[in-house]
Sequence to fold (291 residues):
Amino acid sequence: MQRVVTRRAFSGIQKLPKRQYSSSKPDGTTHFGFKEVPAVEKENLVKGVFSSVATSYDVMNDAMSMGVHRLWKDDFVSGLNPGNPKVGVQTRCIDVAGGTGDIALRILDWAREKHADRDLSVDLVDINPNMLEEGRTRFRKTMYHNTPQVNFFVGNAQELSPEQFPSNTYDLYTIAFGIRNCTSVPDVLREAYRVLKPGGTFACLEFSKVTNPLFAQVYDAYSFSVIPILGSILASDRDSYQYLVESIRKFPSQEDFAQMIRDAGFHTAKGEKAWQNQWGGIACVHTGVKL
Ligand SMILES: C[S@@+](CC[C@H](N)C(=O)[O-])C[C@H]1O[C@@H](n2cnc3c(N)ncnc32)[C@H](O)[C@@H]1O
Fold:
């Protein structure tokens, strides 16, 4: 693809139109952590969580995972190997629910360091302006500031505006620790499929099901006792971190999520090859290709 960059970088966070979307259950409710709530309310509840944690999000991620989330994210991006050494060929990436930019930054660094690629671009999309603002501040300290390599958008993963995110546009779609917060996972997958080019890759890093029962017990004990306390001490916000732990338990198993990806039209590897567990299934990478 020829390198054509028409949008200005760092021209401010670009807003997208608001929308309503469908419930995940016939009775119009969905889960918000372990609570059942009207589906139309979940988006605002999730926004409240991330507005509340935005300024402490990066510190809390390190504290909760003892830095391990960095390894998961490194692994995720290195496995995707983004970038292209050919001059004049631009790889277009979209990082949805991109938050403070952990994945976008890794993608850009990987392309530059491994492929000498300074043309790859990432559109970073998140529903929460507070999280995006943290990301923008962070990018100001990097070499990507004021370059066309990164753009920020307020947007809903479940309905990406076709004007800003036309169909068949991206080579790589990433979503890390974001999809479980969305009210309708099928809607997110449908949009991912739409915006990817044929041959483009969908890649999701998400908390998942721990496969070893003994390890699962230890992990449960840690998550439910330590993480909300850390949230309370470091972020003065126990409830948001209680939600984050609960939301992990409500997310589908590796197998079920792989099937949802296939149902959205993506080609995946067969059986358990469709995903790669990290740390025994605490986190998991799913990929699919748009045919
Ligand atoms: C746990 S953070 C992950 C941030 C980043 N991807 C990372 O790995 O550090 C989840 C993000 O998903 C965003 N989010 C939640 N629901 C969303 C939606 N429907 N559309 C887009 N972003 C959403 C939140 O605002 C938050 O920034």
About this structure: The chain has one domain: 29-290. The chain has nine helices and ten strands.
